[in-house]
Design a protein that fits this description.
- The chain is of the alpha/beta class.
- It has 2 domains: 2-113 and 239-314, FAD/NAD(P)-binding domain; 116-235, FAD/NAD(P)-binding domain, CATH 3.50.50.60.
- It is 21% helix and 29% strand.
- The chain has helices at 12-23, 58-71, 134-137, 153-162, 182-189, 286-304, and strands spanning 2-8, 29-32, 45-46, 56-57, 75-78, 80-85, 91-96, 99-108, 112-114, 130-131, 145-149, 168-173, 194-198, 200-207, 212-219, 225-229, 232-235, 239-241, 272-274.
- The strands form 5 sheets. Strands 1, 2, 5, 6, 7, 8 and 19 form a 7-stranded mixed beta sheet that branches. A 5-stranded parallel beta sheet has the order 10-17-11-12-13, with helices on one face. Strands 14-15-16 form a 3-stranded antiparallel beta sheet, with no helix packed on it.
- Strand 15 and strand 16 (225-229) form a beta hairpin.
- Helix 1 runs parallel beside helix 6 and helix 4 (153-162) runs parallel beside helix 5.
Length: 317
């Protein structure tokens, strides 16, 4: 069977694309990767998605979007794409758990995954006190002391969330100044449970062989090292686009974000479209991702109708 369109990813972008394509009777296949629902499933209350004046929980919003796509005829299957042949249409995808699939158009909305510190003790202690998801694991640290590594909006959001469970949340950041927006900084600094350890670089995560017990940090001015005792460490330092399976097959920037023609979701391969955080490192909001998902669906539909032009495909670099 050759699908008219396959969508990779189930965050706001992929699910919005699925809703639009399904309503156009294109019966899209949506492939869910290892993080169904995308980053919003790791988020608490979403206050800035239009239509929800009292806010909505991230997982609930994603579940509603999926049900909406299914209602109109989208099909969801779990799998991991290992190879994509973009040399000719229909495009061929090798998917662990599903075998080889063919599609006339492909929408890439695989999002981005959390960056890690890449320091000793981190990888081996994932799930044993080290986490990248406060909403997933915060409950396990009720009455404890935890550390948040990072200085951006996501770090401030996770720090505030963790104060619902932990007795103390300490923010570790390698600069004197935070990168977070003023409103997010103000919320965190106004929380009595949050303390600060700025201008310190994490060096090593310490455990007793069973669980995390501390984080060794270095003062960037004095280069003096110290171990900050803790029951848990949450890493919140940004994300990498999930595009490894497309290396050498589609045009990307130096960070791995997919390049698209401005004002569209067109990649340099006619019939392949990119939407959401996989092509957006500037805005990175649920609503902007959903908007590009709508664009990708419409671009895909028009491409199949023969309305798309592809002269621009030679100009992307």
């Amino acid at each position: 069977m050759t699908y008219q369109s396959i969508i990779l990813g189930t965050g706001p972008a992929g699910l919005t694309a699925a809703v639009y394509l399904a309503r156009a009777n294109m019966e899209p296949l949506v492939i869910e990767g290892p993080e169904p629902g995308g980053q919003l499933t790791l988020t608490t209350e979403v206050e800035n998605f239009p239509g929800f004046p009292d806010g909505i929980m991230g997982p609930e919003l994603m579940d509603n979007m999926k049900k909406q796509a299914e209602r109109f005829g989208a099909t969801f299957k779990r799998g991991w794409v290992t190879e994509v042949n973009v040399d000719q249409r229909p495009f061929k995808l090798n998917v662990d758990g599903l075998g080889e699939l063919e599609t006339q158009t492909l929408i890439i909305s695989t999002g981005a995954s959390a960056k890690m510190l890449e320091i000793p003790g981190e990888k081996e202690n994932m799930g044993r006190g080290v986490s990248t998801c406060a909403t997933c694991d915060g409950f396990f640290f009720r009455g404890k002391k935890v550390l948040i590594v990072g200085g951006g909006d996501s770090a401030m959001e996770e720090a505030n969330f963790l104060t619902k469970f932990a007795n103390e949340v300490q923010v570790i950041h390698r600069r004197h100044e935070l990168r977070a927006s003023k409103i997010m900084q103000d919320r965190a600094k106004g929380n009595d449970k949050i303390t600060w350890a700025l201008n310190k670089t994490p060096v090593e995560m310490i455990s007793d062989g069973m669980k995390i017990t501390g984080l060794k940090v270095k003062d960037n001015d004095t280069e003096v090292e110290e171990v900050i005792e803790t029951d848990g460490i949450f890493v919140a330092i940004g994300h990498n686009p999930n595009t490894e399976f497309l290396q050498g097959k589609i045009n990307m920037d130096e960070k791995g974000y997919i390049l698209v023609e401005p004002g569209t979701t067109n990649t340099n391969i006619p019939g392949i479209f990119a939407c959401g955080d996989v092509q957006d490192q500037k805005y990175r909001q649920a609503i902007t991702a959903a908007g590009t998902g709508c664009m990708a669906a419409m671009d895909s539909e028009r491409f199949l109708e023969g309305e798309a032009t592809i002269d621009w495909s030679q100009n992307l670099s």
